[in-house]
Write a structure and sequence with these properties.
This protein is mainly α and about 575 residues long. The protein has 22 helices and 5 strands. The longest helix is centred in the last third of the chain and has 35 residues, at about 385-420.
Length: about 575
């Protein structure tokens, strides 16, 4: 790996390094100004002469278009996504944003760029699909479609989406725990409001309040842990904290502080027991926003876990490290099992997908456990470092493709919400007859979530499981090649996490396939047998998710190369 080029804020190379973030910031300015442009005038003091002020007054026809904010946000997020992709063409330059005193605030590398792709990609699809969703309900039956839209309310919605994207990208770039926390809260407060944005519905208001209260408590606990780490180490720089953990990482204060900090990230990934607000939030939010929570927001939490567990607090092989690793493994097992069992009894499609998201958090925690195993266990040597990179590559690949089939499922539910309701399993009844494209797409998303070949979900789960097994076998894999006997007692215990993933994936098949049965073999609910509401934007977003789900299942080589670059970038920082 090449060295790091240091760049001061607003110095040479600053714009090139943070171009996607600057695009988002420019889009925010446009969203604040453009929808408010109108025929307003202002009087020159001391005279009766009035000149055009352009802000306020009766708005122009273009600026009063109810879909203008959606187009501004979609183009902005799409441009940031495209700029991030272009950065991989000639290799991502490692660029650090540093202060005058030399403290590293942000780092642009392959790892941060891949997560920016996840964030901007998910938000672009959600913004585009929401273009037909923000009607003002309960204002009368005799108004036209344009009258049912409120332009300024649309602007508020998309400002929050761009703010959320900006906060998420700060989390991906952060090299200081305080900067990471600022980005996390910027994104979190935006999602709190977005969850409750449909204030006309009781479910939306209740979900937003619950999500805000639980999230605020989790953030407060995390902030308390952050202050304890600063008290202990005198700095919140990742490299300084990592050095201190090597020297005094077994002291009670940093371990307690780490536990508090991880509460905040556990809430973001919906890991048990911090997941209780997730089902209500997913059920009450609009489906595109629930899709963001299940994909981009989850990826943001994984970044925090990777930074804290693999960069900051990865102790050398020791008894304390083994205990830490064991606790993380138990947490992953409980999370994946709890999520799947809870989903089995859910009759609300959005709540079912919420519990499915909890189960996927357990799979990701299992991968993180396996990644840390080689550094914490003396028995793992030889190619274990390479195996850890392979698991990390699989984990990042899973997060990338999860955007396609998880967000795609929520976008299908978004169309059903426009038709009236999507809170019951029966609301999916007869979907394959009402609109075959949506029925087939939803079925493919479901079996991809279950891990059925040859779809992207199968590839991502298989890579994670194979990586965990590779780490578990470690150096004794040579005995297999030589024809020696290998028993379960000879492998590392993280092998059982891979086995648990297989069992839980089999359990999940029931509730995923149940969706297909309802769509293809049951009749629509009474009064809902007609055509679904129109809207080409949301259907185009569903089609994009479907194409990625199918294509990445059979031709994922290039994406895997990008994910491997990201894994090696983190491994470079790690070591």
């Amino acid at each position: 790996m090449s060295g790091v080029e240091n760049v001061e804020p607003f110095g040479d190379g600053f714009i090139a390094a943070l171009c996607p973030e600057l695009i988002i910031f420019a889009g925010l300015i446009l969203l604040i100004i453009v929808p408010n442009l109108g025929k307003g005038t202002v009087r020159i003091p001391g005279t009766q002469t009035r000149v055009m002020w352009f802000l306020g007054g009766e708005r122009f026809k273009l600026t009063s278009n109810p879909r203008l904010p959606a187009w501004i946000a979609t183009i902005t997020l799409g441009a940031a996504f495209a700029q991030t992709i272009l950065s991989f063409q000639d290799g991502v330059d490692r660029t650090a944003i540093v202060t005058d005193s030399g403290k590293q605030l942000m780092l642009v590398n392959g790892f941060s760029r891949v997560f920016e792709l996840i964030f901007f990609g998910a938000l672009t699809l959600a913004a585009f699909a929401s273009m037909n969703r923000l009607e003002v309900k309960g204002v009368g039956p005799n108004l036209s479609t344009d009258d049912l839209y409120n332009n300024r309310r649309q602007a508020d919605f998309y400002i929050l989406m761009l703010t959320c994207g900006l906060g998420m990208s700060v989390v991906a770039l952060a090299q200081d725990l305080f900067v990471l926390f600022i980005g996390l809260e910027l994104a979190s407060f935006s999602t709190y409001v977005l969850v409750a944005f449909y204030k006309e519905t009781k479910a939306g208001t209740e979900a937003g309040m619950k999500y805000f209260i639980v999230g605020s408590v989790a953030s407060g606990v995390g902030l308390y842990g952050l202050s304890m780490l600063y008290l202990w180490a005198g700095s919140l720089q990742f490299n300084v904290l990592a050095e201190q953990f090597v020297i005094n990482g077994t002291d009670p204060l940093p371990l307690i502080a780490m536990g508090f900090v991880l509460v905040g990230f556990g809430f973001k990934v919906s890991a048990a027991p911090f997941h209780f607000a997730a089902p209500d939030a997913y059920a009450g939010a609009s489906s595109p926003i629930a899709g963001i929570l299940a994909t981009a927001s989850k990826a943001m939490g994984i970044i925090g876990l990777l930074r804290m567990l693999l960069i900051v607090a990865a102790p050398e092989a020791s008894e304390d490290g083994t205990v830490w690793l064991t606790l993380l493994g138990i947490l992953s097992l409980v999370t994946m099992t709890w999520g799947n069992i809870a989903a089995l009894g859910s009759t609300n499609p959005k709540r079912m997908l919420a519990y499915s998201s909890v189960a996927h958090a357990g799979y990701m925690l299992a991968a993180i456990t396996a990644i840390g195993a080689w550094n914490w266990d003396d028995s793992l040597a030889g190619d274990a470092g390479e195996s850890a990179v392979a698991v990390l590559t699989a984990l990042i690949f899973h997060l990338v493709v999860l955007v396609a089939f998880k967000l795609g499922a929520f976008l299908v539910l978004s169309i059903l919400e426009s038709d009236g309701d999507a809170s019951r399993l029966s609301s999916l009844g007869g979907l394959a007859k009402r609109e075959p494209f949506l029925g087939v797409a939803m079925f493919i998303f479901m079996i991809s979530l279950a891990g059925v070949p040859p779809l992207a979900g199968f590839v991502s789960k298989l890579l994670v499981i194979m990586g965990i097994v590779k780490v578990a076998v470690g150096e004794i894999g040579a005995q297999i090649v030589a024809g020696g006997d290998l028993g379960l007692a000879d492998v590392h215990w993280v092998w059982w996490l891979a086995f648990a993933m297989v069992i839980n994936s089999a359990i999940s098949m029931f509730y995923y396939l149940r969706i297909g049965v309802v769509m293809f073999f049951e009749e629509p609910e009474e009064g809902r047998g007609g055509p679904l509401p129109s809207g080409w934007q949301v259907r185009f977003a569903v089609l994009a998710c479907l194409m990625v789900t199918l294509f990445m299942g059979v031709a994922s080589d290039k994406l895997l190369e990008i994910c491997e670059v990201a894994a090696q970038s983190l491994n470079y920082d790690w070591n």
